[in-house]
Amino acid sequence: MSTTEVLVARGRKFAAGAGALTAAVALGATLSLASPAQATPSPADTMKPFGTVTAKRGLSARQYPSTDSSVKGYYRHRAQVGLVCKVRTQSVGGNSLWYLTREERGTWVAAKYVTNSGVVKYCKDVQRGRLIQPGGRNNAAKHAVG
User: Fold this and answer.
1) Which residues of 30-49 are buried (b: 16+ CB within 10 A; e: fewer)?
2) How far are the Cα atoms of 34, 36, 41, 49 from residue 44, in angstroms, in the given order?
3) DSSP string of the chain, one letter each residue
4) How confident is the model at residue 18, as a pLDDT?
5) What pTM, to 2 d.p., does this model score?
6) Tens digit of pLDDT for each residue in 82-113?
7) Of residues 83, 86, 87, 117, the one with CA closest to residue 103
């Protein structure tokens, strides 16, 4: 093979490779425009209700929806609290609603001191499987009265 023939063969391979590269870049650009970004939250995540603690001194998170129940945590004033559902039990300051939080252990907070955003369903209307905690313990759902 002469030098000219070698250069022509290399030029053809280069042109074929460049064409394939161009096609791959164009396909990648098309796919990146067609698929949503990973950081975009799903509609289900943005629709989950949450509350803001309004008590100036903060709010105790309890094991069960009662002031007699043991305190399992604490929320500061203006803290954001994820909410699962609500029940009517012991009245606190004239408000008998309590919210089950979305925390790992599922604690309860008095609705008197939480301003909610979104619709918070009653616990009896929420799927029971969603109230079961990791590890199979279902203490929060067992004591939920709707």
Assistant:
1) eeeeeeeeeeeeeeeeeeeb
2) 21, 15, 8, 10
3) --HHHHHHHHHHHHHHHHHHHHHHHHHHHHHHHHSPPTTSPPHHHHTS-EEEE--TT-EEEESSSSTTSPEEEEE-TT-EEEEEEEEEEEEETTEEEEEEE-STT--EEEGGGEEEES---BGGGS-HHHHPPTTS--HHHHT---
4) 53
5) 0.58
6) 999 999 999 999 999 999 999 888 999 999 99
7) 83
